[in-house]
Protein: Calcineurin-like phosphoesterase domain-containing protein
Amino acid sequence: KRKLLTSIRTMDIPIHPLTSDPTSAWKEISKTQRVIKVTMKPPQTGVAFNKARVVCMSDTHSLTPYIKFDIPDGDIFIHAGDFTKCGQLEEVIEFNNWIGTLPHKHKIVIAGNHELSFDSTFTHPFQNRNSNERSKHTGMSILDDLPTLGNAKENIVDAVQTPNIRDVLTNCTYIEDELIEIWGIRIYGSPWQPEFCKWAFNVPRGLPCLEKWNQIPSDIDILVTHTPPVGHGDLCCSGVRAGCVELLTTIQKRVKPKYHVFGHVHEGYGITSDGRVIYVNASTCDINYLPNNPPIVFDVTLPPGCRKDE
Structure:
């Protein structure tokens, strides 16, 4: 069952005064936080009848042909975004074919900042005119100030001009600011993240981010976002934190999911907990964009009265 939630009654979540500097914000916030490193070994036995096995990946960046590990079987497969390099049609087709080979009964996918073609707010300025056409007055292209992140500029132009790209994902369920319920397990997915290189699903830190998180319902089991919250799986190799302060506050104060699955920061791969919520950075690619990190697997207990054969 899928539900698009247009309005959610929320408690007031304050904007942290240091929200624009998550590294400094975390330095202050961490004084009252617990960050517990969690070692979660892949299950060695079959899944119990009253549980669903969830297999998580993220940030595969069109490199699935180079994955050397096996994808564990399970009931639900979750991909937390950045399944392409820039969202070109060929990349999305390749990903759809790959995910179609996986045995999981339910496959849930959200977009990330690399899926340029999936963000209508990003592609809109490009689709009605030649995005590479240079201004007669300035000699500048609309793409000249857009970081390429290692992609050829013509590939980016091609990606953002691809219409109806979501229709290509026929072998999974793509969700965007949506709730999906599987055997009573409530999963909500959102692709947004604090501004990063002007790419897809970027919003400024602070209130614009919080307005996205305010759409998340409170009674969910698994939250899937592309961005990490501040303090969990968000530490970059430079020593800077990239996570969202208001996302952490929303999770801890209001939403309180059992699991939060995300990616985005490759070097943040792994599992942590604050004592209540388990945070899963499932980035498959490491800092060198090599798909070396295996999927993270956990079992979720079904709500009373729910069965997987329904």
About this structure: The radius of gyration is 19 Å.
